Amino acid sequence: MIVLDEIERRYKLSSHEFTKNYVGQGKPVIISGVIPSWNGFSQWSLKYFKQLSPSLNIYAKRFSDGGIEVCRLTMEKYIRLIENYEADCLNNSSPPYCHDLPLFSLIPSLIEDAQPFPLDYLPEWYWDKWWRYCQFFLGCSNSITPLHFDCLLTNNIFFQIVGRKQFTILLPEDAKYCYRRGWRWFLVNPENPDFNKYPEYKNASPIKFIVNPGEILYMPSGTLHHVRSLDMSISFNIDWHTRKSSLNALSASFKGMPIQNSYYNLLLAMGLVFKIPPQVIFKFYKSYLNYVS
Ligand SMILES: O=C(O)CCC(=O)C(=O)O
Ligand SMILES: [Fe+2]
């Protein structure tokens, strides 16, 4: 078991070291020096997305204790809401958060902007059309994603492009102190924990840090994370399994993982362990990208 009191930061980490010392050890890390060499890094902004595809239909979410409310609107309308909020946050209500949007599939020209993509951080199985597995997060400052882990128990490589985000993360061993609700959400608010209601949280060891534009965050499978946007922000992630994490995730089918998640994990394990090609698996996996919350 690893004990961490702060996150490591590495410049242009090699894929060999990434795989051995971070993925292999279940250790989070922030990697700088990779995203800034992408073709379109300095071009990406909400205005740019609006110009590329104003009438694109997207969805945005509001998180509350009662659940997640989803609303649908166009890219143009959403970005106007964000711009108005940033210009005058006191007189405009805070817009919903565009969360888990497969934007590379919706605006394919963005794929070229993210080249050279660090494919060698991922298992080779993902190299073909890697962008299909990515989900975007667009939002205003102060957008929040409450404490959770990623629902298939995948590894997560998180790309911060515009704006800063503050992460509070906990290693999987601390889940027992965070008061779980359902499969993946937790009741504790790590930014302002209510120790009367959640006394066990005193035993947890949260790590808090900022991810800056142009940085990559790696979170191992099962890492709990709470995320606050400090600025208007554009990020995307790729959730992915290794052979080992796909088998571990399958064994979680016996520990409360919803059956639908086990189905998607079985598909990924068939790809990673039994080498069934991604072209075959993706047909069945595609619906996952709308299923995640
Ligand atoms: O950026 C966020 O608000 C949430 C990110 C997240 O939960 C993820 O990448 O899994
Ligand atoms: Fe997440």
UniProtKB/TrEMBL annotation:
<protein>
    <submittedName>
        <fullName>Cupin-like domain-containing protein</fullName>
    </submittedName>
</protein>
<dbReference type="InterPro" id="IPR041667">
    <property type="entry name" value="Cupin_8"/>
</dbReference>
<dbReference type="Pfam" id="PF13621">
    <property type="entry name" value="Cupin_8"/>
</dbReference>
<feature type="domain" description="JmjC">
    <location>
        <begin position="111"/>
        <end position="257"/>
    </location>
</feature>
<dbReference type="InterPro" id="IPR003347">
    <property type="entry name" value="JmjC_dom"/>
</dbReference>
